[in-house]
Batch of 2 targets.
Target 1
Amino acid sequence: MIERSLHEMAQALAGKEISSVELTGLYLERIARHNPLLNAFLTVDAERSLAQARQADERLARGEQTALTGIPIAHKDIFCARDWRTTCGSKMLGNFVSPYDASVIERFQAAGAVLLGKTNMDEFAMGSSNETSFYGPVRNPWDSTCVPGGSSGGSAAAVAARLSPAATGTDTGGSIRQPAALCGLSGMKPTYGVISRYGMIAFASSLDQAGPLARSAADCALLLNTMAGFDERDSTSLDRPPEDYTRELASDGGTQPLRGIRIGLPEEFFAGGCDQEVMQLVEQAIAEYRKLGAETVVLSLPNMRLSVAAYYVIAPAEASSNLARFDGVRYGYRAPEYDDLNEMYSRTRAQGFGAEVKRRILIGTYVLSHGYYDAYYRQAQRIRRLIAQDFAAAFRQCDMIVGPTSPSTAFKLGEKAADPVQMYLSDIYTIAVNLAGLPGLSIPCGFARGLPAGLQLIGNYFSEAKLLNVAHRYQQVTHWHQARPDAFA
Amino acid sequence: MSLTLEQVRRVAHLARIEISDAEAESTLGHLNDIFALIEEMQAVDTQGIEPMAHAQNLAQRLRADQVVVTDQMARRNAFQAIAPETEAGLYLVPKVIE
């Protein structure tokens, strides 16, 4: 059962082959067995999940099934879920039990999905290895001495180890795509504004976007159908007609289903700086795409090399503003000892935030401060425009862009933890997509030294269905996405 | 460009994060490494380029000026139940005015 697609699970539930209570119980049992090693889940509440599963079974019995009714889904601990502890990986929110549901959680509840638990993550989504979590690192199911990537590392490890059929994540600079690559999963960051950010704890509001982590592009499409949609409670939510993101998947297309698709290969993605074995796998995937009928065209994104620099001004600037709300007054941690209000604020924040979060708040405060605003923040915003213009020019020559997701496979726990700049550079291929607000997807494309490597597909605004279809066609003729780490049979 | 210890302390004060001397020292090293990365932006001529604040060019949505929350007391109670210290519907903080 754990190897079935979400669609096959829904069929098994509809056909009474298994109940939601049984399916949920199966995953809860796997979590109990494997989570002590992986640390992928921060909060599991078996009774609450099973109560939801019973409701789903009643709904199934009434014949009111949706695509996800009765299927357990794990959620990154950045999504507020009513009456669930929601920590965002921080000591600051260690005691925070949310009084309301995020839009994403509401949508899964309305679909009848079961909330299987809350997954570990880098503190406030700031990290690329899951090592900044106050609750300890997550281990990669493919090699427990390695990181799963981050910041959605708990969600990625949970799905890779089959502790959950699928999970949600968020992606501000690569936090869905990079862990998907490092754990051998399919993960999508949609166009900015497609999924509501309401109730999703804010890191960098102009970049943050939720998305699915799953075992296939087809599963991602089903999840996106539930997650996407207009929400007036998020001022940046886009009011567009609903889409069926699975709509292109069913057609046959013959032996060359991607005939007419032009794939752009930016020089900057292939100019060195990437692990050679990973690059070979990416080249093999591109060869596979040519067999499927796609054409390739070499192009350039000349300003992409500036994306990490611009990002580490813009994201910390927005974070320093967003995280000002954690002051020990309304919710979360408050320092036990202080003499006055200022000391209460500064001790609460000194004790409640970890080192990486503090670093980013300090960077953000500095670049927004008087005398530095133009040199840093304005300049970064102008470079952001140049990067977005590069993509616009590229999409006049191609339908989508393909390259590596991450410059390496999963690295060792502790390998980069002491060197923030090295950690930041691990997102070199993903960050530009967030700055431009484009949709991006990572799918597995093979193994280098026993660890999964990811292929990144980047599309123009609102091209999610096309991206998912192009990923799906690859997954019809390859089997990398079906591989499972041996220890989690 | 590189930051001084005094600037790190000043920024930490602005951000309301208490910082020890030892922390300020180690933070200074990390921040200077990060700013060395950020500095590569400065070589780019961006004259005449419109700053981009956001991926979508959106106008703020407006709505009618009317009460839409009808369960205010229930909401207040739920939100204050998780606060560190409240009294009579108010959030309590250390005394600010003598």
Target 2
Amino acid sequence: MASLSLEHISKIYDNGFKAVNDFNLDIEDKEFIIFVGPSGCGKSTTLRMIAGLEDISEGTLKIDGKVMNDVEPKDRDIAMVFQNYALYPHMTVFDNMAFALKNKKVPKDEIDKRVNEAAKILGLENLLERKPKALSGGQRQRVAMGRAIVRDPKVFLMDEPLSNLDAKLRVQMRVEINKLHERLGATIIYVTHDQTEAMTLGTRIVVMKEGVIQQIDTPQNLYNKPHNLFVAGFIGSPQMNFIDVTIEEDGEKTYAAAGNTRVLIPEDKAAVLKREGFSGKTVTMGIRPEDLYVEEMYIESTPEDVIEAEVSASELLGAETFLYFTFAGVQLTARVSPNTHVRTGEAIKLALDMSKSHFFNKENELAI
Amino acid sequence: MQKTTKRKRDHSTLNSTLIRRPIRRHFWIFLLPTFSAFCIGFLYPFLQGIYLSFCNFKTIKKAVFVGFDNYAKALSDSTFLHAFWFTALFTVVTMLLINVLAFLVALALTRGIKGSNVFRTVFFMPNLIGGIVLGYIWSMIFDGILSRYGTSILLDTKLGFWGLVILLLWQQIGYMMIIYISGLQAIPEEYMEAAKIDGATKWQTLWKITIPNMMPSFTICTFLTLTNGFKLYDQNLALTAGRPFVLQSDGSTLKTTEMLALNIVNAFNASGGKNRGVGQAKAVMFFILVAVISIIQLRATRNKEVQQ
């Protein structure tokens, strides 16, 4: 297995469009790295540059310390799983998996051994003689994985490998990929636009937007300490609530005011806001739906962090309920217990857990 | 799967049972115009043609049934057998050359080279010219060149053969190229990328990925070139009309570059129409031959096609 380093990598197309801009990342052996972002953010392009399917316009790509910029894909010792699997339709499952080994002139019994081994891991033993069209979506996906595994590559590259599966199968394959990562001890780079996949699979996540890295961090940190407004909004579902508030000082205390309501900001956060000179200024406050409470207990214990709002809709999802309401002109969401019974149009009180609040500079959208 | 559901949805209003039922009951009204045209223009003459091949006739009203006489005469006609072998050889040569060259041109013109579209159009253009015109144009070109060497396309069977080959290549490569180009473009780019990562060389990718996925195009193109080769008539008439002629020991004339279709027409019109029945018998055998060969060819290549 291997380590990778991407130094100042950029992709500039002939028409001048910059798909990837100054991408820097060091990947250690056995890491499971996720590239995540909305479509067109350059995540697939970056992956394809690592694979050698796209030229690197600027910067250096190293695998195990060796510069790979101008090395042919086949000599980079990588394997790739494509979104549509790209199984060769005229070959059997066995031949699909053996194709790379045959090209490398691996002896026949060695090929048999490796394909059978991979088939066993993936539960494909009985399907080896079938053609791809006779397989289900999940089986095809496994064959695509198998094709990568038999090569025993330094790095696995996966380009949205689960996006063509139905929801149930996707969850199942997600678990299997996680197991596979542990079993093979492989370095994996995985592209997805699905933040659930990103959070559950990655040891580290690279969040991208418009070709620029927004944040590289562990799933936990990404969720709890987003660097900017984009990351805060992108990670987490339903997404974080954002309200424009004015920072007001009142004696010793600091409040975030919106409309004619104000909530108390905890001292540690208030100190940072004051130090950075945001007193009296407008900032964007972010708070996750699960940090809003409707229970009486919370409302009574933190009377200074309570807002009043009218419920515009509620969705019962079984294990939880989403409340949608408008406050200070913005639509907000709260994730509450399913036992909460509120009617649409009803005015309710909500307690904000301000220790979990985030503040962002309105101008550069960075976290304060 | 997806396609059918989509189709159903698109026509759900138009295709409702309420509208469909009366249409189904009166389907023959809708069928009638084309079907009657098919019967009058094709089926009746075809069946009558088969009957006439067993007759001695000058006009179809004065046909006398003679059994297999005409077939016996046709098969003992050395010019017919010569035309058959000449046509068979010609078809094999043109089928191979046209398909190989058209495929190579298609490969070259799908590489994103500048001006690809201009080349595609130019290569296709010979198809817009009729066979007779082509024949006369090329006979001028050939003779213009050959006259420098003191010969003519009409003086040498070999020259005539290759002249016809060049003529047909020039006309048909562009057409087959279009089919191959669309076939190439239908192969998902991902297969090529997967092959690249799987370490296949360009040559291996061509043989193991591209060509197996192009089988539907090969099927249709070999079918077209095969039947086109066998049925070639107007180019043959315009370029050589069967010349050079050789006088045979039995006193008959052998037209050495005469192909099957031309031989049939000539037989039909020879001696003031005395041998129409023989020409007709040749035509029926010709039909069976082309049909059998193309069915065998379709079976053979269809088996190699894959579904994606």
